[in-house]
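Our consortium's second objective concerns turning raw sequence data into structural hypotheses that experimental partners can test. To show how far this objective has progressed, the report includes one record in full. It was chosen at random from the queue rather than selected for favorable results. The single chain below, 370 residues long, was entered without modification.
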Amino acid sequence: MGSTAVETIIKPSKANIGVFTNPAHKLWINETEPTVEDVQKGESLKPGEVTVAIKSTGICGSDVHFWHAGCIGPMIVEGDHILGHESAGQVIAVHPSVTHLKVGDRVAIEPNIICNECEPCLTGRYNGCEKVLFLSTPPVPGLLRRYVNHPAIWCHKIGNMSYENGAMLEPLSVALAGMQRCGVKLGDPVLVCGAGPIGLITLLCCQAAGACPLVITDIDEGRLKFAKEICPSVITHKVERLSAEESAKKIVESFGGIEPARALECTGVESSVAAAVWAVKFGGKVFVIGVGKNEINFPFMRASTREVDLQFQYRYCNTWPRAIRLVENGVIDLSKLVTHRFKLEDAIEAFNTAADPKTGAIKVQIKSED
């Protein structure tokens, strides 16, 4: 096999298209790279890379935020930008330097490329890589495309797992990273703040870890009802317009008077973080998974006098193999979380659905299974 020879089992014929946004907050579909001609010839593959035909991609809240707000903190959309980072698909081309993947393998894509040189990389915490290229974070183009070239090392085999579940491994990884660092233990009373996709998956992880009792909060009755459907043992708590201290008292009442040992905060909203600090027990921990404003206020003296640990998370590392095992063995069931499905060509409608609370969407996925 020559240095540019490419083996294929599917001859791609459709143009590569992607879902774009820009600083003017427009959303559109257009042709993108690698071109279908490049994919057919394999000429765009670099050493260590494979081409993946993307089959399922979930819309993350950050995708909607980049579209609507044009930024998340210091990450700013400054030009035409492709969204999407929750994807799974089929390997359709392999650079000769890659030996552990072959054409036809079903894979989930871990959407980062790291430098392997900085301290976070060398100490195994590569989510802190100082030069990371994280797909869909500006200016790095995302995965909402028909074909993507990606380093094989970040393409994880998923066997017979559905592409839909394969795409859900990315938000599951977010929850797992929080679980590992928060230290939820068997029998811990745990508060989950926010019943969006990350909060719901975190809830499933806490249940699997043996946390009890479990309380989940949200401002939306529909999402709390959904939480109860996927985790019947959870206690749901609708957040009202109260002070953080009063809100915490109501949360503890929902626990039956027990103060939670851990709070996994999945909204990033100031009032929710503050209520969690007020709610947890002496020596408890508030672990913030959600992202929010650049600066927020929180009850400093409550945290100080109660020795409350306030800890934060940035993405994930070393979670994909664990996530795959949990789904393959039925420990975590992600299947009910996908509420809406659209073809790649209908991505604009998919984003409008994901962005509109009235649709009741939990996780919207965009499919390209042709």
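The partners drew two points from this record. The CA atoms of residues 77 and 249 lie 41 Å apart. The mean pLDDT is 96. Both points have been shared with the crystallography group to help prioritize constructs.
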